[in-house]
Fold TM2 domain-containing protein.
Amino acid sequence: MKNSGLAAILSFFIAGLGQIYNGQIGKGVIFIVCYTISAFLMIVIIGFITTPILWIWGMVDAYKTAEKINAAQNRVG
């Protein structure tokens, strides 16, 4: 069982960490890389739009994925 709240909180502090907690290592690394690039893009203004979007998307995705994992486990076991 995955704690969906913990997954969201981990992504709150480090984008992609919630995905890694959920077992989606590749997806988590992609989030981390994209978030880092987006943060550097703040130099040319566009990062001020993309960074919060990626941050929020990462938290929501981590939460929903943990919920899906739990629902699948409840059906099986």
Q: What stands out?
A: The mean pLDDT is 95. The two ends are 11 Å apart (CA to CA).
